[in-house]
Amino acid sequence: MALFIHGIGSVDPAPALGHAPEPAEARAGNRLHAIEPNYLDFIDARASRRMSRIVKMGIAAAVQAVRGSGGGPVDGVVAGTGWGCLEDTVAFLQKLVVNGEDMLSPTSFIYSTHNTIAAQVAYHLKCRGYNNTFSHRNISFESALIDAQLLAHEQPAQRLLVGGIDELTDTSFTVLSRLKTFKSQQPGGPLDELYDQGTPGTWAGEGATFFLVSGEAGPTARAQLLAVRTVSFGTPEKAAAVARQLLTANQLTWVDLLITGENGDQENDAAIQRFATDFGHSGPVHKFKHLCGEYPTASAFALRLGAELLAGTESTPRPADIPRTILIYNRFQQQHQSLMLLQAC
Amino acid sequence: MDALKQQLKELLVEHLNLKDVKPEAIADDQPIFGEGLGLDSIDALEIIVMLQQHFGIRLTKADNGPQVLATVNSMADYITTHRK
């Protein structure tokens, strides 16, 4: 079941997509920060006083997506988050330690759960319909998309918000740095220096991206998502075989553009090269993690990039370069791979 | 007593993250919930934790909550009476 993308909203390190984020705003060493909007444009001060940063990011992205679709009611919210609401989780755990497991703040506890973002989005938009959150590491967003596809299959006219949200806190950055997730070298040059260093590790990132989708096309549709697949614990060649099946199932023989989740980690990027070789793509390839950093739902950023390219709203060198079909391939470490096949409307 | 009330107002602003409210703008007899400061049931839980943390006060009877937490005056009275 194809999903038509009618609206896109995002709070991430690269609001202008292909344009490099301003270093002073978005970059701090190996870490890319989301450039946050004035939240008062989206949430009133009283409602936002308990919200942590990730909840505000999620609501702002969701509201942008609804506005971008021309407004109107939302019938359901499906979110994906690999890390969840870390800021409140850390606050709750710290109080647990400091206060000797006594006198704990109810707010931090309530807001630490993974579904807080989707719940607050629904509460804010007065959506009393379907509400669900998937947390499956780096295929959390793809799992949310698959759920949205199933919902659209049942009722194509439903307007669904589907998104991927992850925040990076100082604590999680420190912990993940100790686990050698991020590069030890401090970057200072252009953003694409992330790639081709031949070293382990990546840059940290974060972002909230929401899409207003439905199973029906219409004047507001920017792109259609033909298929989403996840491949867990398989080789890149296995993912390439699945990609070829997707093309065949959608009466395609090639795609105009391949968007890949290379993240500068030599092992990860070598696996992506194996995928590209086996898949047999000879056209252009776009990378995106130098713009948003690495986080479990970075593929939502890639989908945003792909949809904007298909719609012609993201700049390309020439109009003739606007693609008609895009395949997004993402992976992180040795566990999960994902594929998203997009087509212009 | 005035110092206690001032401390309570500052703690309310800090614990409940009332960014747009200055402690001195909260009147002693202003209702804390509903029409007054507009607080809700989650705030009530936060205030109960706050009273326990800062004054060693435990609200043992849930039925007393609405009366005790109604205003800064009522909280100050309760603390003064029950503080050990």
From TrEMBL, chain A:
Provide the GO MF annotations for this entry: 3-oxoacyl-[acyl-carrier-protein] synthase activity
The entry's keywords: Transferase
Any Pfam family: Ketoacyl-synt_2
Protein's GO biological process: fatty acid biosynthetic process
Family annotation (InterPro entries):
Beta-ketoacyl_synthase, Ketoacyl_synth_N, Thiolase-like
Q: Any idea where the Beta-ketoacyl synthase-like N-terminal domain is?
A: 37-175
Gene3D superfamilies assigned to the protein according to its UniProt record, in alphabetical order:
3.40.47.10
Origin: domain of life? Bacteria
Is Transferase given among the entry's keywords? yes
What's this protein's name?
A: Beta-ketoacyl synthase chain length factor
Originating species: Hymenobacter cyanobacteriorum
TrEMBL record, chain B:
At the top level of its lineage, which domain of life is listed? Bacteria
- Phosphoprotein as a keyword? yes
Keywords recorded for this protein, A-Z: Phosphopantetheine, Phosphoprotein
Query: A Pfam family name for this chain?
Result: PP-binding
Domain (Carrier): residue spans on this chain: 2-83
Task: Cite the Gene3D superfamilies for this sequence.
Answer: ACP-like
Asked whether the keyword Acyltransferase is assigned, the reply is no
Name listed for the protein in its UniProt record:
Phosphopantetheine-binding protein
